[in-house]
């Protein structure tokens, strides 16, 4: 009974999962996608859903600062719908404003090199999205 968190971009999807009790989020991988070619990595994400026995997926929903939904937000809505359709799993859209910036600041403060940050930033953003959701449930 785990929850998965996803940070959806146009080229990658950061993936995090909760522990079995739903208290903490851990980053597990970054899935390469190609939004322009409509290659969304749904097969790999499905494998991870089964492997970790995920029951709910939280998809980061990047709203604009004025609370409107822009192109990235619409892309997240579409991704969530595709995921539900492909794997029959409930999805939750979670406001993720500034999660990538917060992840970047955390990695910089930990003195992670720019090259290494680029490899883990999406996974770290997924952790922050999922942890925010888990904390709201307590």
Describe this structure in words.
Strand 1 and strand 2 form a beta hairpin. Helix content is 45%, strand content 25%. The chain has helices at 42-51, 71-87, 99-109, 114-137; strands at residues 2-8, 12-18, 25-32, 54-61, 91-95. A five-stranded mixed beta sheet has the order 3-2-1-4-5, with helices on both faces. 36% of the residues are buried. It starts with a strand and ends with a helix. It is an alpha/beta fold and 138 residues long. The chain has a single domain (2-137), classed as YqgF/RNase H-like domain (Nucleotidyltransferase, domain 5, 2-Layer Sandwich), CATH 3.30.420. Its EC number is 3.1.-.-. Belongs to the YqgF HJR family.
Mind telling me the CATH class? Alpha Beta
Q: Which percent band covers the strand fraction?
A: 25-35%
Helix content: 40-55%
- State the secondary-structure class: alpha/beta
Please state the overall shape, judged from the principal axes of the Cα atoms: globular
Task: Return the domain count.
Answer: 1
CATH superfamily membership: YqgF/RNase H-like domain
Q: What is the CATH architecture annotation?
A: 2-Layer Sandwich
The CATH topology is given as: Nucleotidyltransferase, domain 5
> Rg, please?
14 Å
Number of strands: 5
Q: Uncertain segments of ≥5 residues (pLDDT<50)?
A: none
The neighbouring-strand order within the major sheet is 3-2-1-4-5
Keywords: Cytoplasm, Hydrolase, Nuclease, Ribosome biogenesis
GO biological process, one term: rRNA 5'-end processing
InterPro entries: RNaseH-like_sf, YqgF, YqgF/RNaseH-like_dom, YqgF/RNaseH-like_dom_sf
Protein name: Putative pre-16S rRNA nuclease
